[in-house]
Amino acid sequence: MKNILYTLLFFLLSAESYSQTEVDMAADATNHDIKSGTQYIKDINNYFGPFLGDWRYVDGNKEFRLHITKVSKTHIYFPAFNINYYTDELKIRYEKYESGLLIFSSPETDFSSGITKEEGIVDMTFIDYERTSAEPQLTLTLVPQTVQPHQLENRKILFKLDGFEIWNKHVYQPGESLFSVPNNIEMTWYPGP
Fold it and tell me: How many domains does the chain have?
């Protein structure tokens, strides 16, 4: 009987030591244990929620579209740097149109990123595939709504790329933009294709 109790106690303690702890993504990052593989840095408050879906910006006959999805519990593992944890992230894909014709579509990748420290702002990396494979910082900011939150069609975000000059290896022509995509723009949610 004593052996059975010790065995049960051993299994309970083992299960507890290997269980995963959910940590609020918006909490102080210094409290995150990113080494043991036992923490799940989760979007507990659903701050990612309002950013999900399809977005577009129209400028004359040119249109820029984003498709943002959430990837839950991505495993981040870099043994050489002693990094091992799980997190929620965002996946972003974009398309460019001219006169209604698709002229560029970013590739489908497994790459995801994104972190939120406060409601209404997401920071993530963005790959400008037509210019470089570097990953500038992208900040998405929800425009405060004057309508009810359930009215999805009225959502807007600000799209701003930053830090690109440091990483970009593209040789520019006089008057050429830093990005192949529009920047510092307001995008509107739409029901998607």
Answer: 1
